[in-house]
Amino acid sequence: MNIIESNHPLIKHKISQLRKDKISQKDFKSLLRELTVLISIPATTDLILQKKEIKTWNGVSVEEFLSADNHLSVIAILRAGLGMIEGFQELVPQIKVGLMGIKRNKETLEPVCYFEQIHDQVQNDDVFILDPVIATGGSLIQAIHILKDKGCKNIKVITIIAAPEGLEAIEKNHPEVKIFVGVIDKRLNEFGYVLPGVGDVGDKIYGTNQDLITLKNI
């Protein structure tokens, strides 16, 4: 199984803080950034290192640094995924950042891409998709299809909270894609809301409709 759920106490603690009803916009953004850093660490264990000789305080030493042979892109799913970019860049500054917007077609109810800003050599990169909450999984299934059509072969997903139904759907469509998740929540309700969830991530980041306390992703 390519679903890697964290059992780290700090991640559990910070997600519990994220769930609070009266959380401030500032605290929500800070926690989202911190959680992105923590969850991204196990997702980046296969980065390439190279040895370099450097001067230290007591002489010369051979140390390991990230290699220039790492070709990395992050794709943030709009708009909530934007809140995760800064955290990932703290870990790996030398990345290319792309954006993808996906919404549900009102007639077919199928997810469609309405916005895409991805560099034209992305097929050569290891790609990390950033999306804070997975509900039904439809958006990510479509995003992965788009990246595969561009020739991407090594794709990973970094998310904070996921419903088991969404994870199952993604795994069924893209079994080779690794998903790194902070916590797997209980379920979706009959309207497709993640329970218990964290509320609407985009609204909480950007200060809109903060009285809304349920989240529905596609």
Would you kindly provide a written description of the structure presented here, covering whatever features stand out?
By secondary structure, the chain is α/β, with parallel strands linked by helices. It has a single domain (3-41, 68-206), classed as Rossmann fold. Helices cover 31% and strands 31% of the residues. The chain contains six helices and twelve strands. The strands form three sheets. Strands 1, 4, 5, 6, 7, 8, 9 and 10 form an eight-stranded mixed β-sheet that branches. Strands 2-3 form a two-stranded antiparallel sheet. A two-stranded antiparallel ribbon has the order 11-12. Strand 5 (96-104) and strand 6 form a beta hairpin. Helix 1 (9-18) runs antiparallel to helix 2 (25-43) and helix 2 (25-43) packs across helix 3 (82-91). The protein is globular and about 65 Å long. Catalyzes the conversion of uracil and 5-phospho-alpha-D-ribose 1-diphosphate (PRPP) to UMP and diphosphate. This is Uracil phosphoribosyltransferase. It catalyses: UMP + diphosphate = 5-phospho-alpha-D-ribose 1-diphosphate + uracil. Its cofactor is Mg(2+). Residues 6-208 form the Phosphoribosyltransferase domain.
